[in-house]
Structure formats: C-alpha cells, structure tokens
UniProtKB/TrEMBL annotation:
Cofactor: [4Fe-4S] cluster
Designated gene of the protein: amrS
Keyword DNA damage: no
Pfam families: Radical_SAM (PF04055)
Name of the molecule in the record: AmmeMemoRadiSam system radical SAM enzyme
CDD domains reported for this sequence: Radical_SAM (cd01335)
Domain Radical SAM core positions: 67-284
Keyword vocabulary terms for this entry: 4Fe-4S, Iron, Iron-sulfur, Metal-binding, S-adenosyl-L-methionine
SUPFAM superfamilies, alphabetized: Radical SAM enzymes
Iron among keywords: yes
C-alpha cells in the first residue's frame, strides 16, 4: 500500500528524502536507492507501507538478542527493500527485489501481536526496518498506547538519519544493530553506505534502549584483528556491557569467497573480550 512518507522536502521539481544518510534527490516517477520511496507529483510515498513478506514467532535469541528477555518468543515481521546493497545479503530475495507481499493494517498487526500466545511483542526484522519507517513508527506507537508492556525490537543496519531515529526511539525497547565493519572502505564497497552514521546510531540508541551488535566477519574483507580491536574499543567506550555477536560468514548472494577461517573467529573473540564483557560467536 502507498502511504505519504515522512522526512522529505520539496525542491524545485524534485524531492529530497532525508530519512537515511543517502539523502536521495528523487525525480518525479522515480524511487530512491532503497526502491521503496516514490516521488509522485511533488509528494513522497512509502510503497511498502503495511506490506508484509514474512511473519514468524521466533525465539528472541534468533534476532540475535541474548540479554533481552531471554527464553522468550517474539512475533517477527518484515517487508521488502533496503538502503544497503550488501554483496553477501542473507535475505536478498526481499531486500533487493520486490517479492509477493500481503497488506496488514497497523490495527490488525497490533491485534495479532496481542493475540499470539507467549509473545513478548514485535520485532521488525528480515529486511531493513528503517526504510519501512512510517509503518514501523505507526505500529510501534499504537502497540505502546494499547499495551505498554509489549516490547518493540528493531533488527537494523543502523543507517538512518538522526531526526527520524530520535522520533522512533521512545517506542523501541531493544535493537540489534549491524556494525558490519570498522572501515568506511568496507561500507562503501561491500554495502553501498558509510560507517559514520552507523556509529552515531549506535551511540544514540544505546542511551535510549537495550542494544546488541552483530558483526559478520567476512574472509578477505574484514577478517583483520586490528579492525576487530578498534570496533570493540569503540563499543567499550559507549558501554563495556554491550553484547557483541561475531558471526562467521558463509558464501551467499554475490559474495563467493570461502567461509571465514574458524581459527580467526576464535582469535577475534579473544581480541574483542579484551574490551567487552559480552562477546559471543555465531555460525560456528
Ligand atoms: S530512505 Fe530511501 S529514498 Fe530516502 S534517502 Fe534513504 S535510500 Fe534514499
């Protein structure tokens, strides 16, 4: 469904979207880099509003969140689109393409959240929630107004501008933020983004809600001990208790390099533990 977007300004015959740091300037009849924000006759629309591609009741540990309401289940939903183009994307069928989806109003989603048995709330995941902003914001707000004890979780790449992030944070209880690497080159070449805005998102979010970080360690790209040290040191300066999930890469989508060396994963864990109290390995 098409819904009027937030966080844009009209230029002469174009539109500037400032939801995320890409700051797209979009011509009439075109979409931004995320493929889901459309300029139509001087207005910007979210074209994935309420469009759901996946829904499941997942263990919270699968997000991954290891220190937020452990051993619970959370209703998890995703749409389509992404503001990154990671070569190794695990969910490229919904992040880089527009697959079949089904509309669900925010009221119906809130009712589903409340009626699902043993469910602690809602996780916006699978594709990037920040470019699903209007629906995520509306649903999170309605859920909190209906039952403030239900949790709202975001699993995100953290590539969102400060103003929309600050508007959403009051309704968010926990986030898993990807810190894909600690180099701008990696963000540019592999993800189509930049590092600095993600670091800002982590700093701001950690002041407001529970935050855990995931870093996919990719062979030949960010499997560098010094970089793991710098990344861990940055997180420890915010809070030494921020959990860091170091996940082993396996070939996927366009990235064909071999799986990350297991010995390196253990070395990375050892290095991260010099700075952080909660480090775990994934995909080992
Ligand atoms: S949200 Fe989409 S349209 Fe807006 S700036 Fe980011 S990539 Fe561009």
């Amino acid at each position: 469904m098409k819904e009027k977007a937030m966080f844009f300004e009209k230029l002469k015959d174009k539109i500037h979207c400032y939801l995320c740091p890409h700051n797209c300037v979009i011509e009439d009849g075109h979409v931004g880099k995320c493929q889901v924000r459309l300029h139509e006759n001087g207005e910007l629309f979210s074209i994935n509003y309420g469009m759901i591609t996946s829904m499941a009741l997942d263990p919270i540990e699968k997000k991954p969140l290891h220190y937020f309401k452990p051993n619970s289940y959370i209703l998890s939903v995703g749409s389509f689109g992404c503001n990154f183009t990671c070569s190794f994307c695990q969910n490229y069928t919904i992040s880089q393409y527009i697959p079949p989806s089904q509309f669900m109003s925010k009221e119906d989603l809130v009712e589903t959240i409340l009626n699902a048995e043993d469910n602690i709330g809602i996780a916006f995941t699978y594709n990037e929630p920040s470019i699903w902003y209007e629906y995520v914001y509306d649903t999170a707000k309605l859920l909190k107004e209906t039952d403030k004890n239900k949790s709202v979780v975001l699993v995100t790449n953290g590539y969102i501008s400060e103003e929309p992030l600050k508007a959403l944070l009051p309704y968010v209880d926990a986030m898993n933020i990807d810190l894909k690497a600690f180099s701008n080159r990696y963000y540019n070449d592999i993800c189509g983004g930049s590092l600095k805005p993600v670091l800002k998102t982590i700093e701001l979010s950690a002041k407001s809600c529970h935050v855990e970080i995931t870093t996919l360690v990719v062979s030949g790209e960010n499997d560098n001990i010094d970089e793991i040290g710098e990344l861990s040191s940055f997180l420890s300066n915010i809070n030494k208790d921020i959990p860091l999930h170091l996940t082993r890469y396996f070939p996927r989508y366009k990235m064909k390099s071999p799986p990350t060396d297991i010995d390196f994963m253990y070395k990375a864990e050892e290095t991260a533990k010099k700075y952080l109290n909660r480090v775990s390995l994934g995909n080992i």
